[in-house]
Amino acid sequence: MAGYRGIRVFYYIRLTGWLTVLFLVGKLFFWLIKGFFELVAMLMDCLTSRPQPPIIRFVSDEERGSLVRVGTVDNLRSATTLQRSSVPVVKDISLPVPEIASSLLPASTNSFLSWRKQWDDLMEYSGPEVPDARERIEQLLHLWRISPPDGWQRGVDPQLLGKRYRRGDFQNPQAGEHTIEFEILQRHFEEVDFLGYHLVDGINAVPLSRDPQGGRRGNVEADMVLLLEKNGQYVMAVCEVKATANNAWFAAVENLRQLRLFSVSESARSLFHQRNQQLTLPSTLPFIACVIAPEEFYCHVGQKNNARLEVIRLLDRFAIMTGYTALLTVLDSSHKRVKMLE
Quick one: which of 146, 123, 126, 128 has its CA closest to 314? Predict the structure, then answer.
């Protein structure tokens, strides 16, 4: 009997030992697996971390083609966050910019009106979410690389050489977008802090194209184009102004279309040289694009808030892939400033 008990104790101890070993091995295996996945996550973060996006795009007549100059601003944390207390320092680098000649496109897209309509199709949608957002972003990047087909170019309209606020409601601007434009261009022009820059000049209702067929279907107009200055550095801003209509996706895509035409329009890029001949402006001025709207425009529950999240992805990828910067900004009327959307 004693021998039988001894055998049971022996096997019990042996079983306990094996269970302990299995537990320790299992625990070691668990920590190894956990460490492996943490290492993979760290590597993915490193590989997918966003490089510092450029904020200023330089294009000169000599450089337009295979190379362009891109100016970046120090202390830019992302396309939606700016360290306002720092002074930007412009750096120059060169990047290849592939373009697709319009003559290589299918006949159905080989016209300015068709090219313009493709932008319309990508900016418009119904429902609370941007449908197929990732696919739309890639299509927009592809469309950006397509040179606008000929027939849209226009010279400087003499009307653009006059007063800053050009709309017919100067005495009593309409509520909404016109009021925002009036506050920036007239009421608070001398006081506005625009992303840390001060306003030198500006004008609204700036036509960037003409309808090749003589109508209005091919028109593209920037709500405002501004000339900014800080510490002797000048920057142009192509602006899309919003109050309540549409959403941030619609506004951003419209702004990118404006920027695309502005980037290849000699008359548009020389506008402030003609308006400010008393200033010694560089022959080539850098430029950015920005949507200007009240903060609630971006954050209203539903479609507007959902669109904002997708636009941030769009503009981050756009800056990385093209070298241009387009920003979402907020008009803070009480403090007379235009600041980055946070």
Answer: 123
